[in-house]
Structures are given as structure tokens and as C-alpha cells.
Amino acid sequence: MKRICLLGAAVAAVLILGVASALAATSHASKAGKKSKTPATVTTKVSCASSLVLQVPSGAADVTPDSQDGIQMGTSVCQPIGRGIVAESYTTEDSGDISGKWQGWYNTGSVYGTFMLTPDDNSPPTTTTSFSQASYTGTFIVTNGTGAFAKATGTGTLKCATKDAVHFACRQSGKVTLPAPSTKKKKG
């Protein structure tokens, strides 16, 4: 049985958190009468939790948990950003690793990128009822975004687990870099 993965939600959530935190961390105070220079970018630590469900393929009547590729969708919660919707597409490599693309949508924009997950245990199941249980460890990359997350980049780690190969829970942590908000005042 091939292993499946989910991480899109996790990564999207991580990026969203990073953007909101970055925007909140842009106050620039003067020191000793000198104005400080505005940084070109702001890097923020992020931490998110996501819950994903394997989707029924187009034209199919049910879910196939041992599928080599597929789509997962779900929700993501990032502090202090809030909740969002995430989706990811994945492919199982010949090595058993899972790779794919993810995207998350939040109130202030969307973020997207790629991920790679490796099964934590490649040995046979210990019982006939534990075959669908699996856990994964991997990395994600933030490649861009829209709205508040435009030009976002970042990397991080993720851990995902499933008890039935259909429902997945993931935790992500990493760093996201965004262009610093403009401090120029609008004329007019």
C-alpha cells in the first residue's frame, strides 16, 4: 500500500502567520535623535496546525487511500493570524517520499509553495488494523503569495500523522520573509 501525505494546509498556515507577524513587527523608533533605516525585509517565526482530508477524485464515487497521487483539502490555524483554507496536491515518489504543492487562503491574501515528506516508519505494520496509520516528517518551502503575502519566501519543518490514510493532522514551524511595509506617507 502506498503512503499518502498532506502538507499544503500546514505550509499555507505557516506563511500566513509569518506575514501577519511581520506586519506587526515593523515599528521603527529613533535612537539618540537618529532615524533608523527601514529594513528591506521582515523575517518572522511561524507555527501552525492544519487538518486535511483526502478528496474524492473527479469521476470517482469514493476515496482511494492508497492512491499514488491526489488532492487534500482542509483548514489551518496560525497564531496570531487566524483560520484559513488550504489545499495540496501530492505525488508518491518511488522512494516512498511524498512531494507536492500547497496553497492557503486567508483574509489578507494567499500563500503557496512546495513540500517533501518522508515516512517515519518503513517497516511492516505491527497488526492488521494499524496498516493505515502513518506519520511523516519533512520540509516546506514558501515560494510566493498574493495580497499581504506578495513576494513571501520561507522554509520550515512539518510533521504529519494519520490513523486511517484519509484524515491527516499536521504541525508546521519555520520562518517566513516578506518585504517590509512601506513607511512613505501618501500625498493628497
Q: How would you briefly describe this protein structure?
A:
By secondary structure, the protein is mainly beta.
Observed structural traits:
mainly beta; elongated; disordered N terminus; 8 strands; 188 residues; AOC barrel-like; eight-stranded antiparallel beta barrel
Global shape: elongated
Q: Regarding quaternary structure, how should these chains be classified? A: single chain
Largest sheet: 8 strands, antiparallel, barrel
How far apart are the first and last residues' alpha carbons, in Å? Answer: 64 Å
Mean pLDDT: 78
Structural class from helices and strands?
Answer: mainly beta
Helical stretch tally: 1
Proportion of beta-strand residues = over 45%
What does this molecule look like?
With 188 residues, this protein is mainly β. The chain has one domain: AOC barrel-like (Beta Barrel), CATH 2.40.350. The chain has one helix spanning 8-24; strands spanning 41-54, 69-78, 82-92, 98-106, 109-119, 134-145, 153-162, 167-179. Strands 1-2-3-4-5-6-7-8 form an 8-stranded antiparallel β-barrel. A hairpin with a 2-residue loop joins strand 4 and strand 5 (109-119). The N and C termini lie far apart (64 Å).
Q: Layout of SSEs?
A:
Layout: H1 8-24, E1 41-54, E2 69-78, E3 82-92, E4 98-106, E5 109-119, E6 134-145, E7 153-162, E8 167-179
Antiparallel strand pairs: 1-2, 1-8, 2-3, 3-4, 4-5, 5-6, 6-7, 7-8
